[in-house]
Write a structure and sequence with these properties.
The protein has 3 helices and 5 strands, in the order ααβββββα. By secondary structure, it is of the alpha+beta class. It has a 3-stranded antiparallel beta sheet with strand order 1-2-5. It has a two-stranded antiparallel sheet with strand order 3-4.
Length: about 90
């Protein structure tokens, strides 16, 4: 399912126009991204939690030259599914 299909389904389930559903979906995504950028955790009870994990700097190898390189520290967005979400998917 892609973003436009999500917007269509939200519009249908909420009984609103696709334009309003698109605004809502985009606003939700923006809020989640902005919160993660600010180092906040976004917790949707029953659905899951979005948060940022820090991956430490580490040594690696360039696969083309086999040269040792340092991979810098990075921030990764992660999602942990909530209990109700996991159960709903498992039942299907």
């Amino acid at each position: 399912m892609n973003k436009s299909e999500i917007i269509s389904n939200v519009a249908e389930k909420a009984g609103i126009s696709k334009k309003d559903a698109e605004k809502s979906v985009n606003a939700l995504l923006e809020v989640v991204v902005e919160a993660l950028q600010n180092g906040e955790k976004v917790q949707l009870v029953g659905f899951g939690t979005f948060e940022v994990h820090t991956r430490k700097a580490r040594a690696g190898k360039n696969p083309n030259t086999q040269e040792d390189i340092m991979i810098p520290e990075s921030q990764l967005p992660v999602f942990k599914a909530g209990k109700n979400f996991k159960e709903a998917v498992a039942k299907k």
